[in-house]
């Protein structure tokens, strides 16, 4: 349901405990309390990106120490996917540092074959490949891709201060193309880039206007990368993070809310609050695309402490939610 900025302000600015309890009530209506989706992420094409996203270690415009690498080969990707499944991941996400997809090229054909092979393992297949045409989206869907990740990053108003090589509208066009092809949308943002709390709520307002709503909403905390324009940004206030997760849970009750990049900066207690407030998905594994992530054993220890367990796969990620305690299993 589309929500206005006024409605989102009213939710977000409630007294802290009232907000978290409201989010918890919404969560219990739609999800099993003890489940967290485990996603593994692999960079299949690292570095050398032409875009100027101010947060990104992979931009060729910044001296970050991340060099351009060729596209990984199929056996390497398939082995990583098999290992991810063996560790309990139900979704395998593949990311390429490109401006966007160019259908008909050898590289895109190779990515399509990766998607076909990973899909045959019984994993949900998510890719993030930049800007996407309608035809490329159709080809990804035919290859077994279930979800396309394309974050809004921030509000439409703040976006030009973070990226100048493409427009906010370009991102929305990619999302529309992916949805028209029948792909679920994994779409969220990054906080801690210098934006205001109002910018975060504006981003959330746009997310609630998508039709259908996003299947997953990653909430990333900026990891300040030396060499990027945002290298000196201070850490995100943890209570602001929890407030945003709780507000997202209320605004998008049927979405998986993913506690994404930046978890290495959060204490175990902060992560516990995030899960209680409505987060029910994480990137699982020691590394994100280029940045560090909490060790798998640390995550499993935290889950055991909190009484959490891995969420089983849903056979239809466009329709991911059942009544509490009911699952769509492969």
Describe this structure in words.
The structure is a single chain. The protein is α/β, with parallel strands linked by helices. Strands 1, 2, 3, 4, 5, 6, 7, 8, 9 and 10 form a 10-stranded parallel sheet that branches. It has 10 helices and 10 strands. It has a single domain (5-310), classed as TIM Barrel (Alpha-Beta Barrel), CATH 3.20.20.70.
Structure characteristics:
disordered C terminus; single chain; 36% helix; globular; TIM Barrel; alpha/beta; 330 residues
Secondary structure elements and pairings:
Blueprint: H1 5-12, H2 16-30, E1 35-45, H3 74-86, E2 91-96, H4 106-119, E3 124-128, H5 134-142, E4 147-149, H6 168-180, E5 184-186, E6 189-191, H7 197-209, E7 216-221, H8 238-251, E8 256-259, H9 268-277, E9 281-283, H10 296-306, E10 309-310
Parallel strand pairs: 1-2, 1-9, 1-10, 2-3, 3-4, 4-5, 6-7, 7-8, 8-9
Helix pairs in contact: 1-7, 2-8, 3-4, 5-6, 7-8, 8-9
Number of domains: 1
CATH superfamily: Aldolase class I
According to DSSP, the number of beta strands is: 10
Overall pLDDT metric: 89
Task: Point out poorly predicted stretches.
Answer: 315-330
Give me the number of helical elements.
10
What is the name of the CATH architecture?
Alpha-Beta Barrel
Protein structure class: alpha/beta
Strand content: 5-15%
- Globular, elongated, flat, extended or rod-shaped: what is the shape? globular
Indicate the percent of residues in helices.
Answer: 25-40%
User: What is the rounded Rg?
Assistant: 18 Å
Major sheet: size, sense and barrel closure?
10 strands, parallel
CATH class: Alpha Beta
Q: Please write the string of helix (H) and strand (E) elements.
A: HHEHEHEHEHEEHEHEHEHE
Q: CATH topology, anyone?
A: TIM Barrel
Straight-line N-to-C gap: 28 Å
